[in-house]
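Session log. Operator J.P. requested a structure for one protein chain; no other inputs attached. Running the standard single-chain path with token output.
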Amino acid sequence: MNGKGTLYEKIASDYVQAIKHGAYPLESRLPSVRETAAFYQCNPLTVLKAYELLIEEGYIEAVSRSGYLVKDLHPPKSAAKLAQTIASLLQDYDEDTIIKEIKRQCGSK
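Structure written below.
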């Protein structure tokens, strides 16, 4: 670790790099929380936090009785921000108004 960030961020970053370099292809399973905790010699809760970050960023998904699977090799970086923006817009506008404005801005009918 370079002194910046936390261990869970390093673990998440290591997995992102591994996913991007093909070590974990789409739909493949990441090592279990216990295996990763043993590898990094840390508490399993630290690994869970790293996996939650990877879920938030769109790289993996938790699948009941299967573990954590690679979801997308190139997730949109701003998906979480877009979801927050949409949620905020829905507080002020109805869906039809939002859709009409998106279509107008994109030049479609």
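Operator note: The radius of gyration is 18 Å.
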